[in-house]
């Protein structure tokens, strides 16, 4: 069955893997791997999974985990650059780390910090740690984040990447029922071209997009 890719809207998609719980399709245009919409959790059950998360800024292990995105992005920011943590979760931490470094931060999360007014402002940088894999409409959401950036701004994502079909079959990342889209390096390179941004891969699971000009 041909499905529409939720990132690039191509219908050049085909079956990629089945694990007994869900099916996974791959886009022949942008290489995104995705779960069919009918097999996603509903919003109520999705929220129940997130409510089980116990991450806090007081957990040094969680801070070390986030430092893979925090450190390379912080090195590229000017003093007092203003940021948005998109998908901040029930225990915002990355925003706290940047605030401690002198960067004013806004947060947004559709469940825990749903103030949409912060999505009407512009920012010098935007972070989305362990968020991209949850997006039902990643093409629309990531383009919106790119549009919120000032020229010269940075979009920093942290999400694990698809490598090979064989590795995908054994991948723990697909066991989380809230993970519905999976990016490869090729997908991110396609996205960078689409958003007219430069892309870098400074650390494991980390991708940085640099907005060097206005789109279009």
Automatic annotation (TrEMBL):
GO terms for molecular function: methyltransferase activity. It comes from the Bacteria. Keywords: Methyltransferase, Transferase. Pfam families: Methyltransf_23 (PF13489). GO terms for biological process: methylation. This is Methyltransferase family protein. It comes from Halomonas ventosae. The lineage of its organism: Bacteria, Pseudomonadati, Pseudomonadota, Gammaproteobacteria, Oceanospirillales.
């Amino acid at each position: 069955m041909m499905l529409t890719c939720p990132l690039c809207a191509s219908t050049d998609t085909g079956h990629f893997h089945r694990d007994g719980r869900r099916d996974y399709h791959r886009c022949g245009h942008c290489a995104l791997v995705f779960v069919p919409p009918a097999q996603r959790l509903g919003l109520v059950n999705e929220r129940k999974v997130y409510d089980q998360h116990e991450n806090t800024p007081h957990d040094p292990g969680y801070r070390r985990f986030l430092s893979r995105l925090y450190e390379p992005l912080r090195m590229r920011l000017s003093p007092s650059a203003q940021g948005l943590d998109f998908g901040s979760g029930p225990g915002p931490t990355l925003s706290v780390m940047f605030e401690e470094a002198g960067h004013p931060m806004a947060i947004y999360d559709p469940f825990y910090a749903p103030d949409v007014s912060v999505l009407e402002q512009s920012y010098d940088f935007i972070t989305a740690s362990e968020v991209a894999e949850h997006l039902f409409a990643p093409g629309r959401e990531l383009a919106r984040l790119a549009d919120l950036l000032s020229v010269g701004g940075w979009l920093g994502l942290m999400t694990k990447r698809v490598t090979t079909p064989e590795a995908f079959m054994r991948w723990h990342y697909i066991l989380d029922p809230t993970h519905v889209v999976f990016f490869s390096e090729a997908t991110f390179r396609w996205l960078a071209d689409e958003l007219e941004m430069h892309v870098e891969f400074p650390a494991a699971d980390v991708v940085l997009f640099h907005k060097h000009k206005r789109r279009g």
